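for ur thesis appendix - G-protein coupled receptors family 1 profile domain-containing protein. copy paste whatever u need, i formatted it the way the template wanted (i think)
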Amino acid sequence: PNVWKCIGVASLFLVVCSLMCSPMYVFFTLNPIRIVYTSGPQLVFEDAFLCAAIDKDKLKLYYIIMAVLVFLPIIVIFIWFYYQIAAMIWQHRKPLISANAPKLFIKRTKTVQVQRKIRTF
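the 3d part is after this line
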């Protein structure tokens, strides 16, 4: 592909990732904390930030949004792909008897018989 198509796809990927991360900005807060290390007789302090959720209802909403954005498309694609394969197998099946016999059809009266099917692709 040309350069502009690569740049466009990379930009689209960046925008999609940013949109998926936006609930992190909305539902979580950064709280400043101070970490204390004890190394012998002296104390060492380090400033850091802790990502914490404010409210459990907002956190539940965040998990629902992430499940819909991530897992729902995967499940839909899986079901669609499974259906496509099943439809292809169903269309290409033949009775087991007709696969080995010549194309001579003799009509019989009231003979009900279950036949195995084979795939022919």
